[in-house]
């Protein structure tokens, strides 16, 4: 049975000094190994409270729900919750335009705002988020708890290798590590010459945990080798990632573990759904666990928006359960995944995404009726001997058919014809589609210190 106190208090007040013993596997054993019924009861308690709170404090949700005649009192089960309308990024953007600059979903007075963050705004106006101090502390607390599950402990030193900017990824990792009692080395990424500096600092300081994007870890390894340093010399025991697919792609995971010699952990939902670590692998690395009492994640059909059964593919929809400054309820991710409730060796009860998040609906390319994601190509490219880590898919339209050229780089002295044939064959086996393969000299494709762009779309839709 769960402690009743957990179901009596919302927003939850955590003991911010609490730490399990370092040999403890779980942070909150009673929740993480609860029965499904107990866990669902706790989730429902939080769902009802966050909805009631949003209804009372958020102009955005008051208007959105009144339009469809929804009142939080109508939600008496997790099944009822499936009927609550989805919230999209487009709606949030419109609200930010209309109620500039912070939108009508901020539920605390301006004087209580502690941090302002945002999305990069590469496609349109940036999305701004406000966090109150109590939310910020709860995010740190939950992140620490989740980081505990993949083996991070107070004796660790975490190297943060993603931009310390508006991007919430780096800050979420920083405050989680601090709450856990670990040391942090917020190095950042993205400046010219920073990767070379990272190599020399890493050799000196020897942090035990890496945080960044998978593309950047591979670039860092490439740079290290170029400078005559074996990435294993850094001595990372854990490499922890969010921001893009990769850490959940089997051949990339293996490559990262082989190159650095530590374990590779996949994590990450979206900035809007912070605490974004609510999708994170445990030390067994069987796919991200959905920490349902932190953020309630549902996987729904991309067209009907109805919940899909375990074992099937769909789009994750997120409801952070403890946010009071800017709650989001059933937030549409636009990503694709498959979920399962098969148990993991770690004993946690949460459902899992065994293949992580493997694509975005809008980055999906349909080639002769088959849906192809960059992560499928990645899984092939990263396991073939004689290829570098970088690749892109260039999409063109020949009459009415989409063509995809996979560009990758060669390393070593393999015969190019033989290599091209092997790539084609393995791509065909992985995806069922024949691709044009173009081999380029090492160093031709763009490198990134953040999230890689893997699809270049040259289709002209105006024709
Ligand atoms: C596959 C989660 C965070 C803070 O690191 C982040 O990148 O949030 P952001 O900038 O709002 O981007 C969210 C999008 O990045 C997701 O919708 C998904 O498309 C992608 N993404 C993030 N983490 C992963 C991921 N895709 N695997 C991941 N682990």
TrEMBL record:
InterPro entries: AMP-bd_C_sf (IPR045851), AMP-dep_Lig_C (IPR028154), AMP-dep_synth/lig_dom (IPR000873), ANL_N_sf (IPR042099). Residues 369-459 form the AMP-dependent ligase C-terminal domain. Residues 112-314 form the AMP-dependent synthetase/ligase domain. It holds the Pfam family AMP-binding_C_2. Signal peptide: none annotated. SUPFAM superfamilies: Acetyl-CoA synthetase-like. This is AMP-binding protein. It comes from Neobacillus novalis. The lineage of its organism: Bacteria, Bacillati, Bacillota, Bacilli, Bacillales.
């Amino acid at each position: 049975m769960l402690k009743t106190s957990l179901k009596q208090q919302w927003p939850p007040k955590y003991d911010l000094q609490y730490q399990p013993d370092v040999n403890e596997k779980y942070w909150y054993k009673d929740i993480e190994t609860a029965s499904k019924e107990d866990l669902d009861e706790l989730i429902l308690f939080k769902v009802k409270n966050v909805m009631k709170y949003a209804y009372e404090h958020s102009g955005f949700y008051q208007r959105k729900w009144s339009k469809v005649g929804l009142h939080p009192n109508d939600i008496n089960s997790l099944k009822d919750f499936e009927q609550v309308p989805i919230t999209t990024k487009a709606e949030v953007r419109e609200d930010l335009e209309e109620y500039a600059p912070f939108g009508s979903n901020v539920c605390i007075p301006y004087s209580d705002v502690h941090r302002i963050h945002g999305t990069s705004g590469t496609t349109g106006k940036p999305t701004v988020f406000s966090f109150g101090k109590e939310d910020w502390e709860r995010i740190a607390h939950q992140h620490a708890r989740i980081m505990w599950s993949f083996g991070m402990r107070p004796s660790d030193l975490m190297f943060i290798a993603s931009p310390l900017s508006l991007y919430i990824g780096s800050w979420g990792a920083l405050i989680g590590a601090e709450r856990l009692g670990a040391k942090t080395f917020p190095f950042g990424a993205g400046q010219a010459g920073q990767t070379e500096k990272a190599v020399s600092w890493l050799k000196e300081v020897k942090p035990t945990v890496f945080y960044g994007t998978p593309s950047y870890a591979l670039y860092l390894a490439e740079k290290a080798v170029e400078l005559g340093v074996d990435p294993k010399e850094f001595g990372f025991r854990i490499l922890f990632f969010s921001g893009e697919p990769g850490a959940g792609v089997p051949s990339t995971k293996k490559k990262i573990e082989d190159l650095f010699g530590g374990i590779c952990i996949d994590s990450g939902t979206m900035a809007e759904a912070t605490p974004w670590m609510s999708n994170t692998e445990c030390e067994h690395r069987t796919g991200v666990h959905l920490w349902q009492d932190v953020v309630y994640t549902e996987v729904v059909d991309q067209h009907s928006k109805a919940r899909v059964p375990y074992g099937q593919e769909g789009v994750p929809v997120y409801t952070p359960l403890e946010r009071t400054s800017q709650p989001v309820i059933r937030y549409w991710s636009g990503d694709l995944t498959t979920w399962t409730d098969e148990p993991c060796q770690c004993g946690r009860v949460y459902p899992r995404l065994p293949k992580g998040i493997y694509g975005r609906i809008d980055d999906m390319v349909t080639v002769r009726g088959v849906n192809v994601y960059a992560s499928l190509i990645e899984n092939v490219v990263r396991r073939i001997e004689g290829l570098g880590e970088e690749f892109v898919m260039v999409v063109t339209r020949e009459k009415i058919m989409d063509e995809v050229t996979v560009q990758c780089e060669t390393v070593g002295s393999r015969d190019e014809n033989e290599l091209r044939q092997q790539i084609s064959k393995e791509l065909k086996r992985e995806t069922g589609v024949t691709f044009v393969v173009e081999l380029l000299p090492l160093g031709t494709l763009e490198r990134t210190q953040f999230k890689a762009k893997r699809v270049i779309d040259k289709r002209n839709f105006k024709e």
